[in-house]
Amino acid sequence: MSQQCEKYMILNGELCTEQASSMPFVYQNIHSLGYSCRHIAQHIELLNQSAKKLFDTELDIDSRELERQASMLLQANRLSRNATIGIELSLDADGNHRLRCHGNSIYQGYVMRSLRPEIATLPMSNPLGDYPTSASIESQALANAIARRRGYHSAIMIGPKGEIKSDSANPIFTIKGYTLYSQTSNLASVERTLVERAAMKVGYGVQRMQLSALELESADEVLLGSYQGISAAAHIDNRPYMSIAAERIAAAMEQIYNSKK
After folding, report:
1. Nearest 5°: CA angle at 181, between 127 and 119?
2. Are strands 8-11 and 14-17 parallel, antiparallel or unpaired?
3. In whole angstroms, what is the distance from residue 210 CA to residue 206 CA?
4. 164-165: strand order across its sheet
């Protein structure tokens, strides 16, 4: 019988066997390829903004040291250099930082994911608005579990006034005509900024607003942002959507990153 390989994480700079955090945390998802982390300085800055506001603590290491720790983590888990690997950087209420990896993917760089999800809308809300926290992860996981039991892949949460609820690490966008509509937020987001810049690069206007269920109903396309790039909804509550702009925007995201190397 084959023995299951241990999975490793980084806890406060030290490699150890992966274990769940018992404390609430804030997080960022980092895109890595070739054991190199993308936008790592921005992710540290955004993590610290949330941690300072919620827990009055900060991550006191620079991007070079965090990159070293991430490389050590990827090597310990024997993950491919030739595929995008997501790394979750988290900082808990006691000031402990963790790095966990999501495992190998089939993608290289920013892409439009091949699976176009069937999505249900559910009347739910994220705690603490669009802060990326352990609570927002669990809320989305609960919503997705409910949606799967109803025959969908995942869920979009809709608040009591019809507003779309998502944390800033996983922004939602709509496209109507030649305009990309982006969720209004007081929190900056690496993922949101990348999608907005890519949309402008391929000729779309960008407008920020409070997105609601009404915008979903009138949109031509609905995009779900993440560290991987974007996913384009196939159907939401059985309403069909296109993916023409999504493909162009995803390609532009990778072009923008490569042009800065």
Report:
1. 60
2. antiparallel
3. 13
4. 164-165, 154-158, 118-123, 235-236, 239-240
Side-chain half-sphere CA neighbours of 235 within 13 A: 10
Name the DSSP letter for residue 6. P
What tokens appear for 209 in the block? 């607003």
| The model scores a pTM over 0.70 | yes
Length of the chain: 261
* Sole residue written with tokens 């945390």: 25
Which residue in the block uniquely carries the two structure tokens 């987001």?
Answer: 189
DSSP 235: E
Q: What is the DSSP letter of 5?
A: P
Asked if 221 contacts 172 with a C-beta cutoff of 8 angstroms, the reply is: no
Q: Tokens for 101? A: 């990896």
d(CA 111, CA 252): 9
Say how far apart CA 245 and CA 249 lie, in whole Å: 6
Handedness of CA 111, 107, 170, 155 (dihedral sign): positive
Give the separation between CA 229 and CA 210, rounded to whole angstroms.
Answer: 22
Q: What is the pLDDT of residues 69-117, one digit of tens each?
A: 999 999 999 999 999 999 999 999 999 999 999 878 899 999 999 999 9
